[in-house]
Write a structure and sequence with these properties.
The protein is mainly alpha-helical. 50% of the residues lie in helices and 0% in strands. Among the domains are: 54 residues; 52 residues, no CATH class. Helix 5 runs parallel beside helix 7. It starts with 5 loop residues before the first helix and ends in a 37-residue tail after the last helix. InterPro entries: TPR-like_helical_dom_sf.
Amino acid sequence: MSEPTAYELYRSGIDLLERHDHHAAALPLRRARDLEPTTGMVREALGRALFGAQRYREAAEEFGVLVELEPVNHYAQFCLGRALQLQGRHAEARPPLTMAALLQPQRADYAVYRDRTLAALAGDAPAPEDRPAPAVDPGADEPPPGSRRSGAGPWGAPATEAGGGATDAGSGSGGSDATGDDVDPERADGPPEDLGGPPPRA
């Protein structure tokens, strides 16, 4: 029996993400990443799974690589910043959160999380995540508009799916629950009260 392809592993991981099974999703997505280490959509999906599983250090590593691959991807910048922020690494979180807000100035959630880190660095921040704020949720299961959750262009997916996989570097974002603890890249365009979780993209 042949080994599953990177695309098959990716789709398996996405299916698990859509069922909110972040821990399980990380397994096939890691294998897909090992087969396609420079494919941004795989790195993004794995980062979302790790973020949703509250494995923020590992999520930051994946989003960090994605930022290197796609420097002007605002979604990747935001998710990297959030993963670092949730570890209390505010000095490291400031550059990507600032970049995300610069790339998408209309995104109130990006500005809110950037300002939280700036306040933490200034020593006058409120208790971590103690107030609702607009957010992107990297671990959300309903990807925002423009997300590449369904695409797989690099692996020759059907035309109906391939479009999602070839997202340009400037796309991406997310949304989340009302606690502000997580970021969901897939619900980035939700209303201000839609916060939390790991980031999906928009």
